[in-house]
Amino acid sequence: MDLSSFLLQQMVNAIFLGSIYALIALGYTMVYGIIELINFAHGELFTAGAFIGVIVLTALQQMGFVETHFVLTMIIVFSMAMGYVAVLGVAVEHVAYKPLRTSSRLSALLSALGMSIFLSNGMMLSQGVSDRPYPQVFGIEGIEFMGARISNGQIFIILLAFALMIGLQLFVHRTRLGKAMRATAQNKTMARILGIDIDQTIRITFMIGPALGAAAGVMVGLQYGAVRFDMGFIFMIKAFAAAILGGIGSIPGAVLGGLIIGTIEVMWAAFLPSAWKDVTTFTVLIMVLYFKPSGLLGLGSTEVRV
Amino acid sequence: MTTSQAILELTDVHTYYGNIHALKGISCSIEKGEIACLIGANGAGKSTTLMTIFGVERASQGQIYFNGQPIHDLKPEKVAALGVSQTPEGRQIFPRMSTYENLEMGAFLRKDQAEVQKDLEWVYTLFPVLKNRMRQLGGTLSGGEQQMLAIGRALMSRPELLLLDEPSLGLAPKMVEKIFETIIEINKTGVTIFLVEQNAHMALTISKTGYVMETGRIVLTDKASALLENEQVQKAYLGE
Amino acid sequence: MIRQELKKIAIYGFFLVIILTPMLGFRSTTFEPGRVLKALGVFIAILVVNMVVKYVRSFKKPDTVKKAPWTERIREQINRVPKIYSIGGLLALAFVFPMFADNYMIDVGITCLIYVCLGLGLNIVVGLCGLLDLGYIAFYAVGAYTYSLLNLTFGLSFWASLPIGIVLGMIVGCIIGYPTLKMRGDYLAIVTLGFGEIVRLVLNNWDSLTAGPNGLFGMKKPALYYPAFTEDGFTWITYYLKSLPSMYYFILVIAILTIIGVRRLDNSRIGRAWIAIREDEVAAELSGVPTIWIKLLAYALGAGFASVAGAFFAAKLSYTNPNFFLFMESCIVLCIVVLGGVGSIPGIVVAAFVLIAAPEVFRGLENFRMLAFGGIMTTMMILKPEGLIPASRRRRELHEDLVSAPKD
Question: Fewest beta carbons within 10 Å, which of A68, B141, B212, C338?
Fold first, then answer.
């Protein structure tokens, strides 16, 4: 494979991985934008989505749906995973974050951390320590172009991911509730004075953000063939790096950040020893936080919030 | 004690910030359709009063009635739904939403889209410059424009009572005049106005009733015209 | 009021159930509600107790509500006993413990004491200085690997390696601390987490230096040297601490020294500077506190204590491995600090024993260990953020709503 098609292949992989990171990063950025809290449990919500996906998909496969009604299967799997995790997200918010809204940052962070540990171990207990394989849904067929190859699975996932991202952007900019979310993120007190129900707005944020993470979880399972109870951790860090890189609180920023992180990871693994690729991501994260914490599409310092 | 004409009535309201006793028994009664003002020095508790009325700060003691209905226990969202609007201190524009969207947010609780459009047009006639800045982000507007936007946004909910917190703060004198003229115009359409101001002179000029506040207490209540003549008031607040 | 509280508990309980559902095992057709019901029961019990306490309190006259909570009253009772007796009693207990405990229990005791040291060290960073360090375990690793490498490569004894380990740990502490100096809480946590993971990954991947995931083994135990007189004159006898009880006493001494050290720091000018920074960094800076150096000092000292613990840990097992230093370990230490009471020395000591010994005592709950840690952290933050045995300063700041008034 010559260099140009090799690079092209890497770009394909980068876009694929980047879209997934972007979806997870959106969850972080939305939650942080509205309550200024890093939702440590987000990684676990992502994993939960993946698990629901595998459970539903396995059931559907046993019933023989997958071959006959592919699109319907996908709709069911994704909706159920996203739906369940949306409820789970609201639950986590209500139990662990809401009581601490007026408390110190430290308390809320520790509570989030506790939730993360609780959920990941809960899943370990119920789903086992080892990998849980995903049924094969996509074959290895794909499209070849210019020496690079993109599988059907990758195409499907990338398209779905972008559809979700566009959907989110539309929601946030065109609908009443979406605008309420933006308003709440920008000035909570003023939003209340205008009659916006903050609790409800936050709840919706905790439905949408985690749901997107869940979709990413299903996608990861479909593509990489297996899920584990602790896969949330590393995805969480990377997605968080993406959210910060793009500018925390900014939706296009999260997408951009996701794609960049995906590209960095793929490019590193392509040319350098891949055992160290996670160290690279961590280092990138630290450098971003040190040099430009407001990120690329930064919304300015999040310290000063009117 | 609720007069049939009183749109807003506060009785012995106390508010605390932690251990700090910010409002020490505030009582006042605003007539429907009037412009009333609350003047006093910095730190006297004027903004706290408005925030307590709206429920953003909780009154630990005392009652607040709006059109005869008790609102002292209500959350701000509910108070807004009753027909009260506020332009808080510092304007509080949504910086990353456009002028149009800011105004839209003002009408958040309303369902009658056609009427909302009409009100939007009215706001544009009150503040023509906003129409030019329709698509611009709120954070990029000038101080005076933001103030106009804040008032316009507050009007979009078709409030019965409009609370204005320091609308003249940081504005050039010409702009201040314009704002106050507009306040009078708004009042003519039937909106009751409760104005908190440091610029005592302008506030008392356009108001019917005036309240003077000092360190958490209302120390003087009178017709605004009388307060303008009042020696103490002149010395303390009109002496610029 | 009861009805309102009950309704709140019902809603809360409903959401708790949802959170607990990931614990239901859905394996094809079976699922096990038993676990979920048990966990739910525990949480509901906690909430009900909390509600009952609030309800009972509401009946008291307003000024009695201001009376100190029960933990404070217990504390007062304990303080009545002259310190000599209470602390002396505890020390005596600690010293005689190995005599009537079997090897297994002594081992648990050693582990508890190691975590006491770790908890106290983390307390310096999190508790006193207010810097949420999620990568603390990295310093533990540095201490462990320093001793291992120095001993295996150069044959340096424990005592010779220890100072090097401490210095190295402190340097790493400064390196990790430096980028975080200007950061806020959330970002600081993530950065320290990142560093912790980087250290672990480096240890794991740098095969040529650290033998990677295989770990290092064969380190010698620490030794005591004492003089003896023989016919030829005067020699030093090397006595290796090989037995478990001797290890126990060794770590006990280390733990006691750590406690004393942290205590002195707490009451020193440095300690007060840390607390000033935790409360209000800007004000501290304006009062002349050199915040940068003081914060780095916090990291460095915290790292130093962890390095000592790490060196001991490696020596005791004669084995070390990157998997001993996972992020989860940082969380466990953090949980100890949180449960015991941020900034509270007795609290942390107690919490270390409770959290480490309890799973050993209730053997059947081994699987639920980490689950419990997570649940404890969240629950403590919501119900009793000052910890079980609060540091006296902390309780005041967390239970009084000292919000500053807005400018008017």
Answer: A68
